[in-house]
Design brief:
four-stranded mixed beta sheet, mainly beta, 16 strands, three-stranded antiparallel beta sheet, 0% helix
Length: 172
């Protein structure tokens, strides 16, 4: 642990990441001593990477950082489903998530990493599943927020904005 300050009756330290509950040991030139009661580290789990949106039929490798649990056994789930609901995507025991092929009816989905020994210790991440942007040349038309249209065809994109849809000082 990194010592921040020390006096004759007090020591302030930064508890290192990965520390677990247990006695506190102190070594000085006079010898070593241990606390009678354990120092308690509250267990925590965090998920990375922190993403909020992903495209259908895409894969992301999530990982969990665990603190305060001596031998963590982790369980992954999507929307707390067991067995998994394939319309929400799938996640394997290592945190590899594949989003569904279509935007799910329950959107966003909840990715959860939980302690198998204490399910009350978990982290969750809300991920919105979105459709992919159509590749150029597919002849797709999207209604724009201004009332105009955005068209993609043959590798080109055309934006049609109705007259008076934007303020007169708009530069495009």
């Amino acid at each position: 642990a990194e010592i921040l300050s020390a006096t004759t009756d007090r020591i302030e330290v930064i508890v290192p990441e990965g520390a677990t509950t247990g006695p506190i040991g102190l070594m000085t030139s006079s010898g070593r001593t241990e606390s009678h009661s354990p120092f308690t580290v509250d267990p925590t789990i965090t998920i990375s990477p922190v993403i909020t949106r992903m495209v259908t039929d895409q894969t992301v490798d999530f990982s969990c950082m665990v603190s305060g649990i001596a031998s963590p056994r982790l369980e992954w789930s999507v929307n707390h489903q067991a067995p998994p609901d394939l319309s929400l995507g799938t996640i394997d025991p290592t945190g590899n998530y594949r989003s569904p092929q279509n935007v799910p009816p329950a959107n966003p989905v909840t990715i959860r990493c939980a302690s198998a020994d204490d399910p009350a210790v978990y982290a969750e991440l809300q991920v919105e599943i979105i459709p992919p942007v159509p590749p150029p040349g597919e002849g797709t038309t999207v209604q724009a927020a201004t009332g105009g249209e955005i068209e993609s065809a043959k590798g080109e994109v055309r934006v049609v904005i109705p007259r008076d849809a934007l303020p007169s000082d708009t530069v495009i």
